[in-house]
Amino acid sequence: MASKRTLRQRAVEILTRLKRHYPDSTCALRYETPLQLLVATILSAQCTDERVNRVTPELFRRFPDAQALATAPREEIESLIHSTGFYRNKAKHIQGACQKILTDFGGELPRTMPELLTLPGVARKTANVVLAHAFGIHAGVTVDTHVKRLSRRLGLTEHEDPVRIEKDLMQLLPQADWENWSIRLIDHGRAICDARKPLCEQCFLADLCPTAALLQPARSKTKTQVSPQLT
């Protein structure tokens, strides 16, 4: 890999372009309170934000806070979130987190990474989303599947483990932009850098991307090797 200084310069330039092309990027999950964001983020595991946003209005209407969710019949929560997948585990985690918030944190969602990580169903990705979007606290870089894939394609990390990827990105990006990076890279992954067929020829990051440099010549070569049909 390139030197840390070179990587930092490239990462900051990528970030600058992402901000320019996705100026209105924001958290796609809909919520009114920090706790609702926590619940929505737990539900988003292995599920689209769009699907979560279809489920949460009724869930939050019936169980709007930690007290209501902690004491709700588990079966009712499972029924409401069934379409998000893994609904039994998600319901268990949501209730466990709300119960711990009531018993250990006075009913208020904690605002530190170590405290959030004590809640059932909460790992660094979920905690980063909640801290950044609910409280404006940049404690780390959210690494979902898009961020993992694109950060590797852009040559900014060689790791597969999300925690190690996060550490690499935290060293390359200004802390104030940690969530800017994640939210815009997610949008870029959806719009351009598809997992199977990245649109490198349309990508405004192609000149900064070692993967694009490998893919584009290969595609051009494939096109030129197509033999004309005999008539």
From TrEMBL:
PROSITE patterns per UniProt: ENDONUCLEASE_III_1 (PS00764), ENDONUCLEASE_III_2 (PS01155)
HhH-GPD domain span: 43-191
Cofactor(s), by name: [4Fe-4S] cluster
Enzyme class: lyase
GO molecular function, one term: endonuclease activity
Superkingdom field: Bacteria
Annotated positions binding [4Fe-4S] cluster: 193, 200, 203, 209
Cofactor details (free text): Binds 1 [4Fe-4S] cluster.
Substrates-to-products reaction catalysed: 2'-deoxyribonucleotide-(2'-deoxyribose 5'-phosphate)-2'-deoxyribonucleotide-DNA = a 3'-end 2'-deoxyribonucleotide-(2,3-dehydro-2,3-deoxyribose 5'-phosphate)-DNA + a 5'-end 5'-phospho-2'-deoxyribonucleoside-DNA + H(+)
EC number: 4.2.99.18
PANTHER family assigned to the protein according to its UniProt record, in alphabetical order: A/G-SPECIFIC ADENINE GLYCOSYLASE/ENDONUCLEASE III (PTHR10359), ENDONUCLEASE III (PTHR10359:SF18)
Function: DNA repair enzyme that has both DNA N-glycosylase activity and AP-lyase activity. The DNA N-glycosylase activity releases various damaged pyrimidines from DNA by cleaving the N-glycosidic bond, leaving an AP (apurinic/apyrimidinic) site. The AP-lyase activity cleaves the phosphodiester bond 3' to the AP site by a beta-elimination, leaving a 3'-terminal unsaturated sugar and a product with a terminal 5'-phosphate.
NCBIfam families: nth (TIGR01083)
Family: Belongs to the Nth/MutY family.
Protein name: Endonuclease III
Species of origin: Thermostichus vulcanus str. 'Rupite'
